[in-house]
């Protein structure tokens, strides 16, 4: 599996990695800037994005940039 690493600060960054083919993303530096609550912020944003765009699972998003 591919993991997106580097620069994940918000749900938009996570979406970019998922569309590029990552099945997971790693959050690191954002914790220093935004604290551990950044995880919930990213999850909530990703969930709202998925609902708005009609995705029922993250798997549906993986690799869409290549289709």
Description:
- The radius of gyration is 12 Å and the shape is globular.
- The protein has one domain.
- α1 packs across α3.
- Helices cover 48% and strands 9% of the residues.
- The chain contains three helices and two strands; from the N terminus they run βαβαα.
- With 67 residues, it is mainly α.
Q: What's the topology here?
A:
Layout: E1 3-5, H1 11-20, E2 24-26, H2 29-34, H3 38-53
Parallel strand pairs: 1-2
Helix pairs in contact: 1-3
What proportion of the residues form beta strands (DSSP E)? 5-15%
Strand order of the largest sheet: 1-2
Q: Share of helix among residues? A: 40-55%
- Number of helices, where a helix is a run of at least 4 consecutive DSSP H or I residues: 3
Number of strands: 2
Helix and strand element order: EHEHH
* Overall pLDDT: 96
- What class would the helix/strand composition place it in? mainly alpha
- Distance between the ends: 18 Å
Count of the domains: 1
Q: Tell me, what's the shape?
A: globular
User: Which spans of ≥5 residues are poorly predicted at pLDDT below 50?
Assistant: none
* Gyration radius over CA: 12 Å
